[in-house]
Write a structure and sequence with these properties.
Order of helices and strands: EEEEEEEHEEHEEEHEEE
CATH superfamily of the largest domain: PK beta-barrel domain-like
Number of helices: 3
Largest sheet: 8 strands, mixed
Strand content: 25-35%
Radius of gyration: 18 Å
Strand order of the largest sheet: 2-1-10-9-13-12-11-15
Number of domains: 2
Shape: globular
Distance between the termini: 17 Å
Length: about 260
């Protein structure tokens, strides 16, 4: 079976809103465009907010709102408009349409999040833009990738369907056997008009316990991974070696 790109996701605000794309264009040494470009600082953050709205530096996830601390965030979906505005939606909230660069709209986002953010967790304070790099959990510009068969295998062992959104990968590939992507570390992949190099496995955290349809924790994913496979990894991180377009349905070739 020919392997193909099945899904492309980005997350304009770290941990807040998955966006399903039909296509994108990758650049060498960069993450997927607009992925984790923004993040919401919490009131215990050691990362400062600069006057121009940027974070003062890349920071670890403890500085920001995350799905691990607030599982309800996992149910937020996002849609980037042609004018740069973001439309966010959640099953328990009214849709929110914001310009993430506008201070008034940033305040609206903080207010919108409060009803779904745990009262005993560090409170949201400000929306910040990435300081020249994405505000991912790693200070390296990766693109994440998972084989769909790996998720299907995990779901079968869980005895319940698992949405790809639970794992927040950028690229999903259909046509591989389960967990083949682990065997590709050090290899290169050709997807559409771009080339990636597979670098390392993705270790998972408790954010994956939350059902992205409801925002409620329903499965202990780390315990399941450890019990079934002897590790808590799902997916791989890749670097973009050659930039170019990639779209759903594009062939994936191992070089």
């Amino acid at each position: 079976m020919t392997a193909v790109v099945a899904r492309i996701y980005r997350h304009p605000i770290k941990s807040i809103g998955a966006e399903d794309l039909g296509a994108t264009t990758l650049s060498p040494g960069q993450s997927l465009p607009l992925d984790r470009e923004w993040a919401v600082l919490n009131d215990r953050a050691k990362v400062a907010r600069l006057a121009d709205g940027r974070a003062s530096a890349w920071g670890a996830k403890a500085n920001f709102l995350t799905g691990r601390a607030g599982p309800a965030l996992m149910a937020v979906t996002a849609s980037t408009q042609a004018n740069g505005r973001l439309v966010l939606d959640h099953p328990d909230l009214r849709p929110l349409d914001i310009d993430p660069d506008a201070p008034a709209d940033q305040a609206k986002l903080i207010a919108w999040l409060r009803p779904i953010w745990p009262v005993d967790a560090p409170a949201p304070t400000a929306l910040v833009r990435a300081p020249g790099q994405p505000l991912t959990d790693q200070p390296v510009a990766f693109v994440s990738l998972i084989g769909s068969a790996s998720l299907d295998d995990l779901a079968a062992r869980a005895g319940a369907p698992l949405s790809p959104r639970r794992f927040r990968a950028n690229l999903w590939v259909e046509g591989w056997a389960p967990f083949v992507e682990f065997d590709l570390i050090g290899r290169r992949l050709r997807l559409g008009g771009t080339t990636l190099e597979v670098v390392e496995r993705v270790g998972r955290c408790r954010a994956t316990d939350a059902n992205p349809e409801t925002g409620a924790r329903d499965i202990d994913v780390l315990r399941l991974l450890e019990a079934e496979y002897g590790h808590t990894d799902l997916g791989v991180f890749c670097t973009v070696v050659e930039g170019g377009p990639v779209a759903q349905g594009d062939r994936v070739e191992v070089l």
